[in-house]
Amino acid sequence: IAALTNITHDFGHAVKELSKILNIKGRVIPSTISSVSLNAEMEDGEIVTGESNIPRKQKKIKRVFLEPADVQPMDEAIEALREADLIVLGPGSLYTSVISNLCVKGIANAIVESDAKKLYVSNIMTQPGETDHYTVMDHIDAIHQQLGNHVLDFVIANQLEFSPQIIEKYESKGAKPVYYDKDELNQLGVQLVTGQHLVEVSEHDYVRHRTEVLAEMIYEIALQEISTIQFDPDQFKS
């Protein structure tokens, strides 16, 4: 992307060209093409600048924000959100990937104002230095805090119990499973979607979402929420 940006002098256009080269299905639209830096305010008040520097501090994140703060969103991104039948957030690094895009004010406003249902795909494991000890609800609370509104309708989360061997492998790197409390989610009005086959374990004991199962779950939610036009045969009678 950096090379194409240098050639085209336009980050948005570079993303489009790379999508063509890689034959990507769908559209990849940046939230903004402005040059920004991502910053985090830690619980102790320290300000950390730079996406890669934030988790290295190993401190609890209070909030993330952009500099400059008043960057303009891409018109195409706003249009896509307004036309969406279902808005999906995640999976990915909570603060430095998901919420960083919500820091673009136009993006956050478009999501809040949209009539589309909103879905969050929770990470399977916590991310060291970013979401230490976080539950599914902690992830949701962080998103709602950034948006300034409770907007999520669904969450896809893992229900698979991992072996002690897998737990030990991840804990040695500072990560733990992200657990959920169904009653807690119900009280917030967030519907839990899960399944036994959502997550796969590799031969080296790494856990990942099964992409085809995750895609099917998202597709089913979208289908259930999309309004359909009812066929009325009487309208064609003379």
TrEMBL record:
It comes from Staphylococcus pseudintermedius. Keywords: Cytoplasm. Pfam families: CofD (PF01933). It comes from the Bacteria. GO terms for molecular function: LPPG:FO 2-phospho-L-lactate transferase activity. This is YvcK family protein. CDD domains: YvcK_like (cd07187). The keyword Cytoplasm applies. InterPro entries: CofD, CofD-like_dom_sf, Gluconeogen_factor.
